[in-house]
Design goal:
By secondary structure, the protein is mainly α. About 50% of the residues lie in helices and about 10% in strands. It binds 2-acetamido-2-deoxy-beta-D-glucopyranose (3 copies).
């Protein structure tokens, strides 16, 4: 997650006009099949590059064609890729990798791990793989889905995270040593998403294993966060998990906060839980009331509601997807088209985009291959059937192949402008 490195001045007069929504044309089955094949071959370009150059490290470094450990040392890319292998229909590779991970990955290691990242990537990846393993043709053991080797691995990883939740508030520390627990002198300051992004994995784990501890700590952290919202119903960006004091008071939907809201919506749907949905609705009201201007969402001071940063961050592009999941198609479509207009302006989504200036922000102009806008397009397409959302998918394939593809995979793309964009045929 990003911390804020700058602030900017807001000037309402410079806000760009709402992009009018034009219904796109339908794609033929031939075009769809062409793009499906392109996506598959892009996946294998990245995946095989990882296997050839980086395994058993966590991640591939596509520019130097080697590997490095990033979030731990658990061959993270393989864990992350399992569900994609199944979606692409590669059952033999799914089975090979699932078995390989069982034989090689060990969480009893002296690593200072991000509690948030280990949960979403490792626990989440292993749980998905566990639940998909039968469909991938693996022989499952007696009692599946309530038992199985991948479930035991997910549980093992999650147990390593539990010491982080032993705080007076129930909100977890950001970092835990997988062998020793929370380090002495560990900072109590963590971001909002680092507190509120556990309910999906932890409740799944509790319900499969029968041990309520995971769901309980996740819910306790969510309740603690809920109680800290300001009088105007907003949460800030960084909080002290010992005192519940807000340390960074920027309220918005992007870096540092984003997946807290995502997990309220997805948790409400997965668990059919009205309490989670009510929390999201309350936040949604305040976010609309205080941070929304011309269907852009800005950053505001969490107590006063005054604008602190009129910036769109590429991470925020998950928001239209959440709006469409709760049936707010009208808001979703409007913010989606704002974000899509940024994509079209640059042939990719720059990490930060200044709304008053209508331009990228210095040192944050690249497109680091983030999937948020594509996920929103997927939900909106499912909800409406409107082919203009598939058009974003097509643009994404073309742009990523053009600005991010390198010999050993895909790297952060350099966004293009004006003439450059026209000559590459991306406009
Ligand atoms: C599955 O993935 C492996 C590794 O990339 C590859 O060698 C194999 O051809 C793939 N199989 C299919 C059916 O795509
Ligand atoms: C983990 O963090 C602690 C405290 O900052 C430090 O003393 C220790 O050396 C770190 N361990 C590793 C393996 O990086
Ligand atoms: C919206 O903001 C105004 C102040 O600008 C406030 O008076 C009102 O109560 C707010 N409504 C909601 C639903 O937050």
């Amino acid at each position: 997650m990003l911390t804020f490195l700058f602030s900017a001045i807001f000037c309402a007069a410079y806000l760009s006009p709402i992009i009018s929504h034009v219904k796109g044309r339908d794609f033929t089955e031939q075009e769809m099949s062409h793009y499906r094949d392109r996506v598959k071959s892009m996946f294998y370009h990245a995946y095989n590059s990882y296997l050839d150059n980086a395994y058993p490290y966590d991640e591939l470094r596509p520019l130097t064609c080697d590997g490095q450990d990033t979030w731990g040392s658990f061959s993270l890319t393989l864990i992350d890729a399992l569900d994609t292998l199944l979606i692409l229909g590669n059952h033999t590779e799914f089975q090979r990798v699932a078995t390989l991970l069982q034989d090689t990955v060990d969480f009893d290691i002296d690593v200072n791990a991000s509690v948030f990242e280990t949960n979403i990537r490792v626990v989440g990846g292993l749980l998905s793989a566990h639940l998909l393993s039968k469909r991938a043709g693996m022989k499952v053991e007696e009692g599946w889905p309530c038992s199985g080797p991948l479930l035991r691995m997910a549980e093992d990883a999650a147990r390593k995270l539990l010491p982080a939740f032993q705080t007076p508030t129930g909100m977890p520390y950001g970092t835990v040593n997988l062998l020793r627990g929370v380090n002495p002198g560990e900072t109590p300051v963590t971001c909002t998403a680092g507190v509120g992004t556990f309910i999906l994995e932890f409740s799944t784990l509790s319900r499969l294993t029968g041990d309520p501890v995971f769901e309980n700590v996740a819910r306790k952290a969510l309740r603690a966060l809920w109680r800290t919202r300001s009088d105007i119903g907003l949460v800030g960006n960084h909080i002290d998990v010992i005192t519940s004091k807000w340390v960074a008071q920027d309220a918005g939907i992007g870096a540092g906060v984003d997946s807290y809201f995502e997990y309220l919506v997805k948790g409400a749907i997965m668990l059919q839980d009205e309490k989670l949905l009510t929390m999201f609705y309350e936040f949604d009201k305040s976010i609309k009331n205080y941070t929304k201007f011309d269907d852009w969402y800005l950053w505001v001071q969490m107590h006063k509601g005054t604008v602190s940063m009129p910036v769109f961050q590429s991470l925020e592009a998950f928001w239209p997807g959440m709006q469409s999941l709760i049936g707010d198609i009208s808001s979703a479509t409007k913010s989606f088209h704002n974000y899509y207009s940024v994509w079209r302006q640059f042939g990719g989504l720059p990490e930060f985009y200044s709304i008053p200036q209508g331009y990228t922000v210095d040192k944050r102009e690249g497109y680091p291959l983030r999937p948020e806008l594509i996920e929103s397009a997927m939900y909106l397409y499912k909800a409406t059937g409107d082919p203009s959302f598939i058009q974003l998918g097509r643009d994404a394939v073309e742009s990523i192949d053009r600005i991010s593809r390198v010999n050993c995979g895909f790297a952060t793309g350099i966004c293009l402008v004006g003439e450059e964009l026209r000559t590459t045929g991306l406009l």
